[in-house]
Amino acid sequence: MADTVSNKKSGLIGRVAGIVLVLLALVILLALGTWQMERLAWKEGLLASIAERRAAPPADLAAIEALAKAGEDVDYRTVRVTGTYLNNKERHFFATYGGRTGYYIYTPLLLANSQIVLVNRGFVTFEAKEPEMRKQGQLTGEQTVTGLSRAKLLEKPSWAVPDNDVVKNIFYWKDLDVMASSVGLDPANVVPFFIDADATPHDGGMPIGGVTQFDLPNSHLQYAMTWYGLAAALVVISGIFIFRRKT
Fold this sequence. Notes:
Blueprint: H1 2-55, H2 61-69, E1 77-85, E2 91-97, E3 100-111, E4 116-125, E5 142-151, H3 176-181, E6 193-197, H4 220-246
Parallel strand pairs: 4-6
Antiparallel strand pairs: 1-3, 1-5, 2-3, 3-4, 5-6
């Protein structure tokens, strides 16, 4: 008799524990799905904001600087500046473009007010890394550049990204401060963001401008459906199990 009571009690505890685990798993799966839906709304808002910024008329540098100082996001805002390239101080960022390996050329642009902004002039092939291989592209005299402002990175994006090789002038992540200091630019004069030049052609051919990438991944809906689908499957399987136990 005692054994029967003990077995029933153990069975009840097991069922309760099973129900608790199922409910906990269901809550987690639904929470993950809801989180992905929130991320989806955020990503769609971001993409809409980027599209709006890109379509806006070019602003002057001071307007973008004011936004940066106010803590606003300056990424992908259309901007236009005029100055003179300091071609002997260009920095090289390892990149691929159009299926080819090479570099983005970041060249300081000296403005009339002594400010300096690092401009991503665009892509050159691996063989054209050194300036003497693309002399026609070393634009001299006053230049007007239209492009997109890009926020500086505060740290290396990932442990998998190699460290920058300043000695060889090969950057694997866009460390604006080091790019500037490595060529002796006064940090007090350097604008705290980059500019990606647009695709306006020039006689030198290279660098090839307009290399800004906008392919931000947006798979949050698929992820949400996966989590919700797993939650639904858990409910169905649990229901079948309970039904079979009763019959």
